[in-house]
Every structure is written in C-alpha cells, then in structure tokens.
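Why does residue order matter? Because the sequence determines the fold. Keep that principle in mind as you read this record.
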Amino acid sequence: MVENRMTRPLTFYLALWQSGTEAGADQIQEQEVDCPISDYTNALESDPNNATAYLCRGTAHLKAFNFDSAIADFTRAIELNPNDASAYTNRAGAHYEKGEFDRALADLNEALELNPKSALAYCNLGWTYEAMNDERKAIAHYRKALKIDPSLEAARDNLKLLGA
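Structure:
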C-alpha cells in the first residue's frame, strides 16, 4: 500500500436487481429504493415470498447502515431467488461494511458465477482486496471491471489512486 496516499472510505456500488421477463430474458429494473423501510415491510406482509421486496428493503437497510438487517433481507432474497447475482453483490456490500471481507469475497465470487460479465462485482472485489491491503489483486480486479465496462468511473478512479 502506498504510504503517503490519503486514506479514503471505500464504498461499494449496489447492484440493480434483475427480473425475468415473459420471454425469459433478464432486464434490469431501476426501482426506487428510497421509500421508507416500513413500505417494504408492508409489501412483505402482503407477499412474504416477494424476493424483490426483500432486496429493496435490504438496500434501504444498507443505506441506513443497518448491516445485519440488510444481510438478513439479502439472504432471504437469495433463498427465494438463488440465481439473482445482484442479491449476492448487495449482501457482499453489507459484509464489506462490517469488515467481514472473507464473506464479501465469497458473495462476490458467487455473483460472478451467476453473471461473469458483472463489472460491478469485479470493481467491488477490487475494493475488498484493497481494504485487505492486497493492492495487486485489487488492481487486477479494477482492470477486469474496466475491460467489461470502460465507463465504470469507480474502477478507473481507484486505479489512479493506487498509481496503476
């Protein structure tokens, strides 16, 4: 790690969730996650098997720094829809914020098993390895993220900060 570099907070990017369309293709749905947690709780009371509501509520918990609640909701979303890479990516973010880097790595690797072209997961792996003081792996993952999505500013900025 570069000794004279300013320390900066590392914050994960959250993944958008995916849902299958009638044609079977996945499409990214940009849904609002800024409504109160209670709104998602009410939705789950109506439909306790709504994986998207768990994912949304987990994201709201994560934004509110309620990491254990976020992990619980992302875990339930995964139980209901185990092929949703975004649920793994977002749960990794909660583990990361708690300093549970091995768990974050496991979730990000699972996300990549489900979606090998996730620049976001590679970028978040870079952040995790950087937090673990493994700059070599961090740089490799930031570069892989940029290879997939050259417009991903976080990966580009982090490479610059690492002098790579």
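The helical segments are 37-46, 51-63, 67-80, 85-97, 101-114, 119-131, 135-148, 153-161.
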